[in-house]
Design a protein that fits this description.
5-stranded parallel sheet; about 220 residues; about 50% helix; 3-stranded antiparallel sheet; binds 2'-deoxycytidine-5'-monophosphate; 9 helices; alpha/beta
Length: about 220
């Protein structure tokens, strides 16, 4: 049986994380949320109280430990050995994660970790640069897109379930700002790999989009 690598990239709110989790579970693969790693570094930076610049970030990235761990209650993210899975979803982290993730030495370190975690295959990774930079050799590359309204509504609902109340309009503004930042940065910008399959999820349910990807994966695995 082939143990393939599946890369799921796309902008904020396109359904990457939920879809990637379902696909991984169905295939018995490991799921790796690369955004969670960038969020953990952002949380560490916020706690450091330093100015956001390359020098401070490059020093910080060598002083902290970030790792993700799959547990019976799903994937958890650890910063210096402490579970920060909830804290990394706070609005303050979301607001600052794009500029932190644009810093070269932060990306270098996290990309190396991601390659190590995924090197044996049987993995689903979601992020912005998986198909273009982290695993350009991934056997299946998916690029999820969705219109801004659909993405903002999904995120608002997700945050509400966590007790964070923001309006759809506020979330839409954040999403657009993050998309612009992530796709215009000079290092590994958000971009569809030439050989990625684009799926517009605006009018699809999570189950429908997951099934589409599972079918594509099974075809490759069965070849
Ligand atoms: O998927 P997410 O919203 O949790 O990602 C948070 C941020 O991390 C995103 O705005 C950009 C950055 N990121 C990245 O630059 N590269 C990745 N592979 C994953 C996330």
């Amino acid at each position: 049986m082939k143990r393939i690598k599946i890369a799921i990239d796309g902008p904020a709110g396109s359904g990457k994380t939920t879809t990637a989790k379902i696909v991984a579970e169905k295939l018995g693969y490991i799921y790796i949320d690369t955004g969670a790693m960038y969020r953990a570094v952002t949380l560490a930076w916020l706690r450091s109280g330093t100015e956001l610049n390359d020098t401070n970030l490059c020093k910080l990235i060598n002083e902290i430990s970030v790792y993700i761990h799959n547990t019976s209650i799903g994937q958890r993210t650890f910063l210096n050995g402490v579970d920060v899975s909830d804290d990394i979803r706070l609005p303050e982290v979301t607001k600052n994660v794009s500029p932190v993730s644009a810093v070269g030495c932060v990306r270098e370190k996290l990309v190396a970790m991601q390659r190590e975690l995924g090197k044996n295959g049987a993995v689903v990774l979601d992020g912005r640069d998986i198909g273009t930079v982290v695993f350009p050799d991934a056997e299946l590359k998916i690029f999820l897109i969705a219109n801004e309204n659909a993405r903002a509504e999904r995120r608002t609902k997700e945050l509400r379930e966590k007790g964070i109340e923001l309006t759809v309009e506020e979330i839409k503004q954040q999403i657009v700002a993050r998309d612009n930042y992530d796709s215009q940065r000079s290092i590994s910008p958000l971009r569809k790999a030439d050989d990625a399959i684009e799926i517009d999820t605006s009018n699809l349910t999570i189950q429908q989009q997951s099934d589409l990807i599972i079918d594509l994966a099974n075809k490759i695995i069965g070849e």
